[in-house]
Amino acid sequence: MTSSTLTVGERSTVAARPRAPRRRIRVGGAASVILLWVYALAALAPLIIMAFNSLRTEQDLANQPLGLPLHPDFGNYSRAWSEGNFSTYFVNSVVITVFSVVLGTGVSVLAAYPLGRYRFRGRGALSSYFLAGLMLPIRLGAVPVFYLVNSLTQSLPGVDTRFWLICVYAGSGVPFSVFVLTAFFRQLPMELEEAARIDGAGELRIFARIMVPMVRPALTTVALFQFIPLWNDFFFPLVLLRDDQWTLPTGLTRFFGEFESAHATLSAGLVITTIPLVVLFLVATKQIVAGLTAGMSK
Amino acid sequence: MVQAQRRLRRPVGAGGGRPRRRVLLTFLLPALALYTVFIIYPLVSAAEYSLYSWSGNRQDGFAGLSNFHQLFTKYPLSEQVWRALGHNCLFFIGTMLIQTTLGLAFAVLLHKSRRGKRFLQTAYTLPHLVSPIVVGYLWSIMLNPQFGAINAALRDVGLGALAQPWRGDPHLALPVAIVVNAWQWVGFPMLLFGAALAGIPDEYEQAARVDGASSWQVFRRVTLPLLTPVLGIVTVLTFIGTFNVLDLIYALQGSQGNPGFATDTLGLLFYRTAFQNPDPNAIGQSCALAVCMFILIFGVSLAANKVFRRMEERLK
Predict the structure, then answer these.
(1) Is residue A5 part of a domain?
(2) Which residues of A touch B109 (CB under 8 A)?
(3) Which of B35, B37, B117, B283 to mutate to test the interface with A (most CBs of A within 10 A)?
């Protein structure tokens, strides 16, 4: 029920553990511990400075570039939100990313099901066709994508350009998602659907009621792996959308032009762009763990 | 016999395991359509566009390889292509030296340490969750000569003489970009090396120890050769990543790769050639550049893969 990669990972950490207790505390050991913790500080400090800066006033920041937010001030956030247009960018980012992930995962789980469960002519070719996308840098097709979306917008003026961006994004998630989900479907025991068939369930019903719930942990992984790069992407909105349709990373490029030297306000904009990912991870970690433990208890 | 086995593995039931064509299509078509129309078709079109001459968005006729010829002969492209390629090569070398070496060192040290391993791993990999655009702007704030945290910290500890205009100095700009990029990505090779280390049986190290090898000898003669496959993967992925770098430099130095093109890369050049190009043949030139980049990245990746395969076999 749980993924095989995870079991392999666990086994290897268990295997690695017994070596630790003996002969490890030496001078070299102490030096390496110090090195590791110093670098941990270097890895985190810029992010902490970003958060601190966003809570300080411009005046304070100019006098003392390094300092604590002793009197936290949320004015920077309201300035970025309203004057910096972050309210618009935020909504665009949420809508575009969420719909892209849902559409991309949805079509991928549909396609992965027959690829993982059935034998039919052309299955191997189709799998390779999807797999090839893992190696294709889609930005290199930016010019044709631009003209494709342009002509689609002109011939279907009722449809928002953002919808076509969602289609591009969803398509970009297909190769990885189909690859992972196919592997998951293949692992499920055949008896499951045989039993359902004997009970008279139809193809769609077996898929929706039995198969999809069985691969739910994989769905979470696949959705997360699409969410992060799409949320962070600035290139395609920059190329395809009008500036009132921009997402957070793309909006940042204009924001930094407008508020050039207002470092505290700029930091607030950076935090607004980053926070949703952090929150998502806190929430999703719980979900992943819950999915795994539910599988184990069966 | 084989046939009988095959039949056994097939789901039995309606239609003897062969689903009806219509059902199959219903499942496969949405993904196939989305992927083909919005990913494959544009990439194939880009290759096709590169063979035509354009005025604005009107195709003027078949041009053979003249767009490719223009890339390397027509000023200013001819100058920019080579400069950008050089910067990408430096970016790759610098990243391998800093990021991959540090990633390997951290993986080895973490593998042996017990306390705080989880926390350290999370701390090291956290920056790569953040958008490269955010990372670029964050560091451009911190590297500001007057109001930035880096120079302020140097002044605070009495090293004010080392304070620099980090982003403005043409000699420093590219190394600074490489270091910032390594700061964001170092957790990635670390995780890959860490996973590989966990798979090496303890007995190898113990046997070498019994034979009297020092820790360095064990690392150099036992552990490192066993890490060759991962090193191959990391090298190829680093190559692909550094030759596609765009977002970080765009945020750190703008679309021109400031100061004075000192940080220009192929990714930025492609963006400018496609979308900020006054030349009427912008489509032809940019698609030709895209094809060149694809061939370069894909070709080198395949070749590197082969070389590493051969190295692995020799070790066995």
Answers:
(1) no
(2) 32, 35-36
(3) B35
Please report residues of B whose CB lies closer than 8 A to that of A262.
none
Which of A24, A52, A73 is where one domain is finished? A73
Q: Are B190 and B125 in contact (CB under 8 A)?
A: yes
Q: Which of left, alpha, beta for B212 (phi over 0: left; psi -120 to 50: alpha)?
A: left
Q: Using CB atoms and an 8 Å cut-off, which of residues 62-121 of chain B contact chain A?
A: 102, 106, 109-116, 119-120
Distance separating alpha carbons of residues A65 and A263, to the nearest angstrom = 10
Residue A196's domain comprises 86-297
In total, how many domains does chain A have? 2
User: What's the complex ipTM?
Assistant: 0.87
- pLDDT under 70: residue ranges of chain A: 1-27, 285-298
Q: Are residues A56 and A199 in the same domain?
A: no
User: Is the same domain home to A166 and A42?
Assistant: no
Question: How does pLDDT run across A27-72, given as a tens digit for each residue?
Answer: 677 888 899 999 999 999 999 999 999 999 998 888 888 888 888 8
Whether B31 contacts A137, CB under 8 Å: no
Q: A171 with B34: CB under 8 angstroms?
A: yes
- Looking up residue A96, the CATH number of its domain turns out to be 1.10.3720.10
Domain B69-315, CATH among 1.10.287.3510, 1.50.10.10, 1.10.3720.10, 3.30.470.20: 1.10.3720.10
Q: pLDDT value at position A194?
A: 83
Regarding whether A237 and A111 lie in a shared domain, the answer is yes
A4 falls within a domain: no
Q: What pLDDT shows up at residue A15?
A: 42
Beta-strand (E) ranges in chain B? 52-55, 58-62
Contact list, A261 vs chain B (CB under 8 Å): 147
Helix or strand or coil: residue B303? helix
Do A140 and A286 fall into the same domain?
Answer: yes
Residues B96-139: pLDDT tens digits? 999 999 999 999 999 887 788 888 888 898 898 899 999 999 99
Mean pLDDT in residue range B223-251: 93
Both A58 and A143 in one domain: the answer is no
